[in-house]
Structures
1.
Amino acid sequence: MARNVRGEGRLDTGLVLVCATLAILAWLSPRRSREEIASALRGTVLAPLVRLEARAAGVRAAVVARNDLLTTRGRAVADTLSLRAISDENATLRKLLGLSARLQEGFVPAEVLPSHGGDEFTISLTAGSQVGVQPFLPVVTADGLVGMVETVDRTTSTVIMWAHPDFRVSAMSIDQDAFGIVQPYLATGAERWLLEMRGVPFRAKLDSGTLIVSSGLGSTYPRGIPVGTVIGELNTPEKWARTYLVKPAVLPENLGPVLVLMPGRAQRGVNGVWTSGAAADSAARAAAAAGDSVGRSVALDELAARRAALDSLRSDSLAPGDTIGNGMRRRPLLRPDSSRRDSVRRDSVRRDSVRRDSVPRPAGRR
C-alpha cells in the first residue's frame, strides 16, 4: 500500500513538471505559434470538454429559467388568493354595514378571536361587559343567526354556535305555516355543522329550500332572524310530527365580524331587517336585468316599425287604380259596399238625458 501511494505521488510530480515545462515553452514561443497550438488543442483534445461545458451551461440556464417561472407562478397564485380573500372580506363587511344600517341602534360589533384548540363549536368575541354584553344575548351576522352569548368577561365573551349540543331556538317557516325547535344534527364529519328542525306538525309539509327563521317564542332570540334553509325531511319513529334537515344560514367558512343584539333591540324585535335586505338584493338583480329587457324592447319596437313600413308599402302597391302589365287595371281589394262607415250610427246620436215632458213645472201650475 505504501508503494502505491509513493508511486502515485511520483506520477503526480512528473505530470506537474511536464505541465510546467509545456507552459514555459508556450510562453516563450511566438504568439502566432501559441495561437495555432491552442486552436489545434481546442479542435482535438479539448473539443469534448468544450461541448460538455456548453451543454452544462444550457442545462444550468434551463434550470434557472424554470425556477424563475415557478417563482413567478407562485407569486401570481398568492396574489390571486390574497385578492380573493380581500374581496370576500370586503363583501362581508359591506353586508354587515347594511345590516347595521337597517338595525340603526341597539347592537355591539365584535370580532371573532382565533381559537387555540378549544371547543370547535364555541367562539370568543372581542366584546365584553365593558360595552354592555350580557349572557343569553343573540349573536348574528348579515346572513343570519350565529348563536348565543354564554359567558362574559370584562373585555371578551364566549358564544355557543348553532352546532353546539346545547343550542336550541324556536323557529318557524318564513310563511308561518310550520313551527318547531331547531337544534344541532349531532352527526360526524361535515354533517356535524347541520341542523334539524323537530316537532313540526304532521300536517305542515316543508319543501326543500324553505327559509327557516326564529319565531320569537322565548326571551332569547327575537322573531325574524334567518336560521337556515330546509334540505329535506328525515325519517324518524315519530309519526305525529315531522323532522327536517336544515342547512345553517351562517356557514363556518363565512364567519367573520358579528353583531351582538342588546336586550332593548331584541325586545323591540327585528322584523323586516333581514327580509328587507333580501328584497334589496332582489331589487338590485332586477335593476341589473332591466338593462337587458330594455334592450329587447327596443329591438322589438324597431322590428315592429320595420314590419309596419313594409305593410304600408305593400298596401300602397296594391291600391285601387294601380295598373298591372298590358295596361290592365288592378281590381280594388275592398268591395264597394265595404267602405269605411262612420263609427257612430245616425240613430245612435246621443239624446238629451231629460225628456221634454219631464221639465219641472212651476209649483203653481198643474
2.
Amino acid sequence: MTHTTPAIKPTNVLFIICDEMSRQSLSCYGNQLVKTPNIDRLVREGSCFTQAYTPSPICVPTRASLATGQYVHQIGTWSSAEPYDGSVPGWGHQLLDKGHTVTSVGKLHYRSAEDNNGFSEEIMPMHVFRNIGWPIGLLRDQIYSYDGAPEMAQNVGAGESDYTRYDAKIAAESCRWIADAGKQQDASETAKPWVLFSSFVAPHYPLIAPQKYYDMYPPESVDMPLNYAQEERPQHPEVAAMARFWSYDDHFSEESLRKGRAAYYGLCSYLDHHVGMLIKALEDAGLYDSTRIIFTSDHGEMLGNRGLWGKSVMYEESVGIPMIISGPGIPAGQRIDTPVSLIDCHRTVLHSVLGETQQDAATHSHSLIDMANGFVPDRTLLSEYHDGGCTTGFFMIRMGDWKFTHYVGRPPQLFNLKDDPLEQNDLGGSEVHQDIRAQCMAKLREVCDPEAVNEQAFRDQQVKIDELGGKQACLEWRAFNYTPLPE
C-alpha cells in the first residue's frame, strides 16, 4: 500500500529518548505508583500510542533501526557487537543534505563519533565500548555463563552513579542548546527547523536513584514482580534458556529486589524531571509552540517479572515502549491503539521538519503525525532478537489482538492480549489455535523469511567472531552490564 504524507507546517523537533523504560512504568500507561507529571503533560497536550514496540529488545540493534527506519535484518546490525556505523543513511543524513541542523546530546550507542552518523554535532556522545561493543552477544552456538550477572543485584538503592551524573549533564547541555537556538531564531527570519536528539540513560541500571527520587518509593511499599513464584514462571524452552544466561534473579533477595524496583521507579521520576527541564527551556526560549516533541524509549525492562530482568525477551514489559508526540498539528489528549514502532520515528522526523515526505520503499516506517490524525497503515510490525543468550532467532508480530512469537526451530508462543493482557496463558501449543498460528505465520512471512534471516545472522556473526580473534577472544572480552561512560 502506498501512502503519501500530506503537507504540514514544518517545525523543529525535540526528540527525547530514554533507555530501558517499559511503558508499564509510566502513569500515563496506567501505572498507579510511578509519578511522571511532565511526561503526563505531553500526553495531555499531545497523542499517546498505547501499542508501541521496539524493533529489537536490546540497545545497539534498536538504535540502528531508529536511525534508519529499517528493521535489524535489513541492515545487519544483529547484536550488541554490530553497531550502526552511518553507512546506511538515515533521517539525520537526509536533513543534513537539505541544510538543517541535527544535533545529538548524550547516548547514541553507535560505533564511533568518527563515523558520519547523521548529526551536525554530537555533544558528549556515548558509543559502544572501544568501538566494538559486547562480543559475548555474538556467541550463540550454546548457552554460555554470563559472569556479569551478580552486579545488578549488588548495586541497588539510593545515591548517585556515573549514569545519573551523566544524565544531569545531558539535561543541562540540552537546555543550553535550546536557549542558543532561541537566540539564533530571534536573529534570523529564514532559520530552518532543527532537530535536537536528547538521549538519556535513565532508567537503565545500575538501579541507583538520587536520594530525592528514591525516597518517593519506599521499598516496603513497592509492588512485587508479576508471575514471580517459581511455578508461575514461563516454561518455554527459549525463555528458560534466556533466564539461565541472564541469571540476574539468582542474585536478588526480597530486600534487594524491592530496593531495585524502588530505584527503577525513582529513575523514571528522575528522567521525568529532566523532561520537565527541556519543556521549560523550550518555553523560555519562545520555541515551545514551534516545536514538536517526541518522547520514547529504546526498549523496556522486565524488572523481575516472570523471574526475568533486563530486556531481550518478547514479553510486553521488554518489547513494549512508550511513544508520545505533541506539538503543532497533533490532537491533544488522544490515546491511539494503532500499533507503532520506533522505526516510525524515521518518517515522523522527516515529515515534521520538511513538512512533507514520500514513503521510502526501503522502510516500513510511517509518520506518527499521520497516525495521530487517523491514518491506519496496513502492515505487520516486527520485533526481532539475535543477541546474547539466544541460540536461535526470535520474531514477534502483532495481528489484531494476537501476539505471536516465532522461535526458529523451536515451539512458538501465542497470546491474546485482549483476553490475557498479562500474557499468562501461552496458546503456542494449543490445538484449538492452530489456524490462528498459521495466520500469524503467514503475516510474519510478509515481512521477512525468518529461517533465511536466522541463517544470515549466524553467518554474519561468525565473520565478526573471526574478525575479533575467535570464540575465546570474545569470551575473554570485558563483561559489563552497561556501557562505560565516554572518557
3.
Amino acid sequence: MKAPRVTLDQWRTLQAVVDHGGFAQAAQALHRSQSSVSYTVGRMQEQLGVPLLRIDGRKAVLTDAGAVLLRRSRQLVKQASQLEDLAQHMEQGWEAEVRLVVDAAYPNARLVRALSEFMPQSRGCRVRLREEVLSGVEEVLLEGLADLAISGFSIPGYLGTEMSRVEFVAVAHPDHALHGMNRPLTFQDLENQLQVVIRDSGRQQPRDVGWLGSEQRWTVGSLATAASFVSSGLGFAWLPRHMIGRELREGSLKPLPLEQGGSRQPAFYLYSSKEKPLGPATQILVELLRRFDIACLETHAPAEGKA
C-alpha cells in the first residue's frame, strides 16, 4: 500500500482555515504563525496536485475539489482521533472488545435495549454477539471464546446471576389432529405425533431438551424454522412465547390443552468468563443486561402471559 503524502496535521490545518474563515484566523486558533499555516496548505496542494483553495478578496474559498476532499478529510481526522482515544482507554484497562454468547431462546428485545444503552458508553469497545442453542452456549464459554454468556442451563463450576424466566409453550396448528381430540391431552397422546425439536449446537454433549422419545421427530436448526414448520401444520413443538406472539394472535398456532407440562418456564443465567477479570466495559454491559432483563420482564409479563 502506498504511503500517504499528506499528513493528518495538514488536513487539520486546512479544516481550520475553512472553519475559521482565513489563514490569519486559523493561525490564531492553532497557535501558529500565519506563514506556517500558509506554507502547510500550499505544500499540501503541491503534494496532491489539486488546488484546494482560491482567494476571493481577503477570504480563502474552497474549490469544488477542495470541498469534496475536505468533507472526506473530516471523517479521516475524526477516526484518527477516535483511534487515539481507544488506545488511551485500553491503556487504562478498557477492553477493545466484549464477546457475548446468548442462547437463541433468550428474548432479543432485551438484548437490543441493553446494547443500545451500552453503545454511547462503550468508548469504541466492540461487541461480538454469538447465538447458540442449548449446550452450545456452555461450550463456547468453557472454551474461553466468550466473556459473557446467557444460558438456560446451570453451568457446573460457574456462579451465574439468575435472570428472568422464558416461557415455552406446547403449540400446534389449530387444524392439527391433537386439537381435534377436543379433550385434555396426555404425554401418551403426543408420543404418537410428529414432534419438531431444535438441534443443540453443542458438539460435546448435545441435549434433547423437551423431546418425548417419539420416533416421529424432525430436527431443525433454529427456533424460527421450528415455528414456521409447526404453524404450517407440521407437527407440534415447545416454542418461546415471545417468538410466536404474532402466530398466536393470528391463529396459525394454538397452545395444546395438555393436562400438565403445556408451559415450561426455565430460568436463564448470566455467566462471566473465569479466564480473566471483568474489565470496565464488560462490567457496564453486565449491569445493563441485568437492568433491561428486569425492566422488560416487568413491562411485558402481563402481555406474555396471554394465549
4.
Amino acid sequence: MTAHMFTIRRLAFPVALLATGFCLTAPAHAEGPPPPHPFISVTGEGRAAIAPDMAMLSLTVTRVGETAEAALAANSAAMRQVIEALKADGMAERDIQTSDFSIFPRYSQPDPTRQGGSEQQPQIIGYQVSNGVTLRVRDITKLGAILDRSVTLGVNQGGQITFTNADPAKAVEEARRKAVMDAMAKARVLAEAAGLALGPVMSISENAAQPEPMPLMRTMAMAKEVSPVPIAGGENTYAVTVDMRFDLRPKP
C-alpha cells in the first residue's frame, strides 16, 4: 500500500514543475500597436467646359375667369393649342412634360380710403389657372423660334432656360484627370515643404461630378417679340473633386 502511494507522488511532482515552468515562460506584457505610418491627405479639383447641345425650357399659360370652370376651360384651350403647335413643328411628345399646375381664387382688395375700408373682408372676384410645361429642346438653334412662337400662341409666363448636355461623359472624364493631377501637385508641395518624400497612393475617392449649367431667366410678354428671340448658349462647366491619401517617406 505504501509503495503504491509513493509512486503516485513521484508522478505528480513533475506535473507541478511543468505547470510552474509554463507560467514563468509567459510574456510579462503584450506588445502595443505599431506606431502610425506618416501619410498626407489632400483634395483636388478639376473642371472642364463644353458648349451645350441641349436646353430645358419652361413655359406657362395663365388664364383668369369669373369661375374656376371658366378659367380652367380658357387655360386648357390655350395650352392645347401650344402643345399641338410644338408637335407640328417637330417637337417629340417625349420631350414635352407637364411640370406645374395650379388653380386658386383671386380676391378683391379693400379700399382703405373708403369709410370702414380697413374692416372690409376680401371677396372672391374670380379664379386663376396656371399650367406649365417643360420642353427638352435637343436642337438649341431652334430655341429662339420656339420662344417666339410660344408667345404668339398664348404663353404668358415662364421662359426659364437651362443649357445642358445630352452626354457629358467626356467632359467629366477630363475633369477627373485634372482633379487627380491637382491633388498630386498639392501633395508634392506639402511633402517637400515638410522635408519628406511622397510615396505611393494609399487611397483615392471621388465626389460626384457637379454640373454647373448656366441658367438663363427670361420673362414672357403677351406681345409678339421680334423673331427669332436671340439666344446665347455659352459653355457648361463640369466640376469633379477627389480625396487622395499618399504615403510619406524620408528623403533618400
